[in-house]
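Retro notes, item 3 of 5
We never archived the inputs for the IPE complex last cycle. Fixing that now. Sequence and ligand:
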Amino acid sequence: MTAPPATAGAPVPRHLAVIMDGNGRWAQRRRRPRAIGHRAGARAVNRVIDFCLERGIGALTLFAFSSENWGRPEEEVGALMKLFLNALEREVDELDRRGVRVRFIGERGPFAEPIRARMAAAEAQTLRNERLHLAIAASYGGRQDIAAAARALAVEVAAGRLRPEQVDEAAVGARMALADLPSPDLFIRTGGDHRVSNFLLWQLAYTELWFTETLWPDVDAGVLQQALDDYAGRERRFGLTSAQIGAETTP
Ligand code: IPE
Ligand code: IPE
Ligand code: MG
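Structure as it came back at the time:
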């Protein structure tokens, strides 16, 4: 009898959040324009989606473009927008066929109308899918997300629909992006930097963090499995003691 894989029976994250970093360096190492790295990065997006579908991970949030990335050179932003539009045109039918629900988090306003229209169409087309909830963070910032929730609460208080003392963690959380999903269990950042770069600030409060030197375009199932194996060996205590956690899981 062959030994079961090391991960047999190990908990799989319900929600994986990824900062896909390192496209530019991947291209620079090949003496190619940064846009080539972004194109290679788009192929790695398909690999991480395949991986989640295979492993039964129910939610995947990908940081595709931060609110700060608008400040990059015009040529690079233009190339990214073109890629984005191409991906929306090419991939959505296949995602839909595979049971993926697609949504976008972040500010829509700064995007050109054809992109906004495609985003809305992709969301509408895949709305009823349940196998994998895919959230693409585009023109997204964690602080912006918190500020938007605060603004929504202020509007409700000003209108008399909510009392100030009702503004608690649950009320804020309910108005943040991804409020309908469990918080990310596992966060992966590729590209070697150890920072959150204004990704899901609120939602990552108790997420397990995993970093790799691998540049995003080089990511494959092997790298993703390393992250899952590491995650499976961690003890999530949520502020409690180890003994308490043990007591909770013992029948
Ligand atoms: C991540 O790769 C993709 C985006 C931010 C859009 P980068 O473009 O940041 O790649 P590096 O970090 O410069 O290598
Ligand atoms: C974070 O990467 C944003 C995305 C991957 C979309 P950046 O490359 O923008 O982050 P910094 O600038 O290194 O913090
Ligand atoms: Mg980067």
